[in-house]
Amino acid sequence: MSWIYLVSAGLLEVVWAYFMKQSDGFTRLIPTSITIITMIASFGLLALAMRTLPLSTAYTVWTGIGAVGAFLIGTFLLGEPANMMRVVAALLITAGLLIMKFS
């Protein structure tokens, strides 16, 4: 169950990062509200996952999901550049997450 909490927390991290960008520096009410709500939920689920998972695993996987997810959202929804170095970096982060999961 802790892995479900952790993956959900990571996905919510992607959601709050996207809506933080959409909030325009917290000047738009709805994106700001979504940012705060999903941020709290993400931290809460991370805390639940950390009841049984080691800090080093939980935090690394949480931030990795957020980093790769934010890269994908930025690339596909926001039109940010996806040059070869950025794609390789995202793949290396994903490889690291898989190694962390199975270690």
Automatic annotation (TrEMBL):
Keywords: Cell membrane, Membrane, Transmembrane, Transmembrane helix, Transport
Residues that span the membrane, as ranges: 33-50, 57-78, 84-102
Superkingdom: Bacteria
Annotated GO biological process: xenobiotic detoxification by transmembrane export across the plasma membrane
Membrane topology: Multi-pass membrane protein
Chief subcellular location: membrane
Keyword Cytoplasm annotated: no
Molecular functions (GO terms): transmembrane transporter activity
UniProt keyword annotation of Transport present: yes
A single cellular component GO annotation: plasma membrane
Locations listed in the record: Cell membrane
Family: Belongs to the drug/metabolite transporter (DMT) superfamily. Small multidrug resistance (SMR) (TC 2.A.7.1) family. Gdx/SugE subfamily.
Protein name: Guanidinium exporter
Organism: Dyadobacter fanqingshengii
